[in-house]
Structure to design on (270 residues):
C-alpha cells in the first residue's frame, strides 16, 4: 500500500520539441488539477518536424530517459511528431506508461459533415506510416482528406509569434492553394498550432470547425492512470507545475507566458 501511495504522489511528465505541448499540459491541469506536473521543452533542438525519423527518435529517447530518472509516474509525448517517430520504442523500453498524440482525424470524420477535412501538421508527421494508417482506419473517403505540411509554423510559435502580420503572411502563403470553400473541418495536427487557432479562425470561413487531439489525449492519460491506481487518492489542493527547457532562461520566459495563455483559454473545461 505504501508503495502505491508513493507512486501516486509522483508527477506526470510531459515533453515536446518546444512550447507546443504546453497546450496539452493546460488541459491536464484543468481536468486533473490535484496532480503534479513536470514539462520539458527541447527548444535547443526544435523543431522536430523537419528532422529525420532517426534524429527525432534519438532526441525523444534522451528526453524521456531524463524525465523517468527524475521520477514520474507516466509520460505524455505531447508532440505529434515525436509520437509518430518514437512512441512505439518508448513504450517498449520505459518503466512507466507512455501516452502519445495523434492528429484528430477520427473525431473529424465522426462529425459526419459533407465537406473535406484539412489536416495541418509537420512534414514528418504527415509522411509517417502511422499517419497513413490512421487515415486508412478512420477516413470514410480518403478523397475527402487534404493534407497540408506546415514546416514554418512551429518556428514562429517557438519565437512567440502567435498573432500579427508575420504569422498572417505565412499562413496566407501556406494556404494559397487550398480551396477553403470546400473545407468543413481543420485538424490541428501539431500541438503548436493550438496557439494559432484565433488567427486561423479569422482566415477560414465561419462554418469551418477546428479539432485537435488534446482533450482526447488527456482523457486517455486519466484512464490509464486510473486503471493502474496511479491517480492521487486523497488530493489536497492544486498540484504544482514545473517547466523545464533545454533552451535556457529566454525559453522559460516564453514557456510561462504561453502556458498562462493556454491555461486561461481552458477556463471552464470539465
Amino acid at each position: 500500500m505504501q508503495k502505491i501511495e508513493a507512486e501516486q504522489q509522483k508527477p506526470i511528465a510531459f515533453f515536446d520539441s518546444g512550447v507546443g505541448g504546453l497546450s496539452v499540459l493546460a488541459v491536464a491541469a484543468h481536468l486533473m488539477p490535484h496532480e503534479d506536473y513536470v514539462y520539458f521543452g527541447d527548444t535547443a533542438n526544435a523543431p522536430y518536424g523537419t528532422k529525420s525519423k532517426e534524429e527525432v527518435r534519438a532526441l525523444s529517447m534522451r528526453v524521456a530517459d531524463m524525465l523517468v530518472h527524475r521520477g514520474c509516474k507516466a509520460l505524455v509525448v505531447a508532440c505529434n511528431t515525436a509520437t509518430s517517430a518514437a512512441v512505439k520504442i518508448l513504450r517498449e523500453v520505459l518503466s512507466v506508461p507512455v501516452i502519445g498524440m495523434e492528429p484528430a482525424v477520427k473525431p473529424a470524420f465522426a462529425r459526419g459533415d459533407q465537406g473535406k477535412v484539412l489536416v495541418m501538421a509537420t512534414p514528418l508527421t504527415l509522411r509517417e506510416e502511422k499517419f497513413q494508417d490512421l487515415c486508412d482506419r478512420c477516413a470514410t473517403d480518403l478523397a475527402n482528406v487534404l493534407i497540408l505540411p506546415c514546416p514554418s509554423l512551429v518556428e514562429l510559435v517557438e519565437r512567440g509569434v502567435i498573432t500579427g502580420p508575420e504569422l498572417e503572411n505565412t499562413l496566407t502563403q501556406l494556404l494559397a492553394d487550398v480551396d477553403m470553400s470546400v473545407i468543413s473541418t481543420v485538424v490541428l495536427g501539431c500541438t503548436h498550432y493550438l496557439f494559432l487557432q484565433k488567427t486561423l479562425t479569422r482566415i477560414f470561413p465561419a462554418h469551418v470547425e477546428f479539432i485537435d487531439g488534446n482533450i482526447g489525449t488527456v482523457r486517455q492519460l486519466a484512464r490509464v492512470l486510473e486503471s493502474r491506481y496511479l491517480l492521487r487518492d486523497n488530493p489536497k489542493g492544486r498540484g504544482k507545475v514545473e517547466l523545464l527547457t533545454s533552451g535556457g532562461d529566454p525559453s522559460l520566459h516564453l514557456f510561462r507566458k504561453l502556458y498562462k495563455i493556454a491555461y486561461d483559454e481552458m477556463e471552464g473545461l470539465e
Summary: The chain has twelve helices and nine strands. The two ends are 30 Å apart (CA to CA).
